[in-house]
Design goal:
By secondary structure, this protein is α+β, with helices and mostly antiparallel strands. The chain contains four helices and seven strands; from the N terminus they run E-H-H-E-E-E-H-E-H-E-E. A hairpin with a 5-residue loop joins strand 2 and strand 3.
Length: about 160
């Protein structure tokens, strides 16, 4: 399951100047968005972070991801496509790029958590080849001061789709 991104789309490193656009998408996409501080901390820590831009729209940011390298693994911390741009293969295209990054740094596994209440994302990850391996109880904030469980998913990088990656 690979996405072929149009030549007008470009994935490049995220920089602090991107944060206004990234935060605009983040608050549109999530009831409990990351803060500017979360993104700044990730950039300052040197985490792999990329933005997906559309040259036909003046280089507008339409998606992004942030990951964290570990020993022989990578952990996807946040991947988001602007709601108006969803369903066009951008998420898969960014996953393809992340898998390439995993291969470049010899990461054997890619890990993520996903809200139990996000079937669309869970379906995307499953179609891409991730498998569910656990549950983190009360991992995410939820409405009215409650907490929501996260499904833990992993992808063996060697078993990831080969095409663009």
């Amino acid at each position: 399951m690979n996405a072929v991104l149009s030549p007008s789309y470009r994935l490049r490193p995220m920089v602090p100047a991107d944060l206004d656009a990234v935060l605009d998408i983040e608050v549109q996409a999530y009831a409990f968005p990351w803060t500017r501080g979360n993104f700044i901390d990730s950039l300052e820590a040197g985490y792999p972070a990329r933005v997906l831009t559309d040259a036909l729209a003046g280089g507008r940011v339409i998606g992004y991801f942030v990951a964290m390298e570990g020993v022989d693994e990578m952990h996807l911390l946040n991947i988001t496509v602007a709601p108006a741009e969803q369903g066009r293969g951008h998420g898969c295209g960014m996953l393809d790029a992340l898998v390439r990054m995993c291969r470049d740094c010899d990461a054997e596994q890619l890990w993520l958590e996903v809200r139990q209440s996000n079937p669309r994302a869970r379906e995307l990850y499953t179609r891409y080849g991730f498998r569910e391996v656990g549950l983190r109880r009360g991992y995410y904030p939820a409405a009215l001061g409650q907490r929501e469980d996260a499904r833990v998913m992993t992808l063996l990088v060697d078993e990831a789709p080969h095409g663009l990656v």
